[in-house]
Amino acid sequence: MGRLHEGEPELDADLVRRLVDEQLPQWSSLPLVELPATGTDHWLYRLGDELLVRLPRIEWATGQSDLEARWLPVLAPHLPVSVPERVAVGAPALGYPWAWSVCRWIPGRTPDRTDPAELSAIAASLGEFCAALRAVDATGGPLAGVVRNRGVPLAHRDAATREAISAVSDELDPSALTSAWEAALRAPTHSGAPAWMHADLLFGNLLVDDLDGVTTLVAVIDWGPMAVGDPAPDAATGWSIFDAATRDDFRTAAGFDDATWARGRGWALSTALVALPYYRGTSETIAANARCTIREVLADPG
After folding, report:
1. For the whole model, what pTM was predicted?
2. Residue 153, pLDDT above cutoff 70
3. Among the residues of 40-114, which ranges form H helices?
4. 197 by DSSP, 3-state: which?
5. Is the pLDDT reported for residue 89 higher than 90?
6. Domain residue extents for the chain
7. CATH for 116-299?
8. pLDDT band at 109 (very low <50, low <70, confident <90, very high)
9. What homologous superfamily does CATH list for 13-104?
10. What are the strands, taking DSSP E only, across the chain?
11. pLDDT confidence of residue 10
């Protein structure tokens, strides 16, 4: 993946090698291999067999490692899958401007959105993950709308979503998009206690493995947008990952009520719409996933 954002620093494997060798010399003998990025916030390098170097590629991602290090040890014991574990922190140096981190390597691969059998295999287990996460005590967690921007009322995204609808009107029907968005805005607002959410359950943030010949969800990664608030952003997974054949299996296992499900449809639409014009000139993979999510939303009356 090439440059995704304006303002990205220059980075290559030689620079990462120097950062590791100078700051974490205990690992200087381990081979370093750049990995294809599945997300948008970090560059990833595998370090030996058991470690992963993670470097923010844009300023808004610079606090994510600390957030994960604070809260993932709290959440991990309650979850049915693995989550990242930070083992070291590097400092800005050699022209790279931000702190960076080293995590334990989690074996697995990104699931294949085009494989119906794979979607079916993970639908219930990802729903169970969402249910387990919501059940964790949220006291003191990063509040939606205060610390994080996911999990706020959908109305807070109205201006950005309508702007995105206008921006993609060259390829998508603005009338259909507006109708779907306004239907989501009419859903009842969240009235319960703030609940934990991952808030970015996309394909690139899931890891599966083939265990005894069965595709199994083994980890959920990239927790940067995590928050406590309205858990509807995790319900958005029903459209951002699943299709009509698997969506209900995910929802049943997750236990989302009707209002949360309706807001989740709005979150799926809004995030995909905002992503499409931003990334369609820089990452065809991200743009294609956004288009697929929008199609799923428009095909599902909710």
Report:
1. 0.94
2. yes
3. 64-75
4. strand
5. yes
6. 13-104, 116-299
7. 3.90.1200.10
8. very high
9. Phosphorylase Kinase; domain 1 (3.30.200.20)
10. 32-34, 42-47, 51-56, 86-90, 100-104, 195-197, 206-211, 214-220, 227-229
11. 85
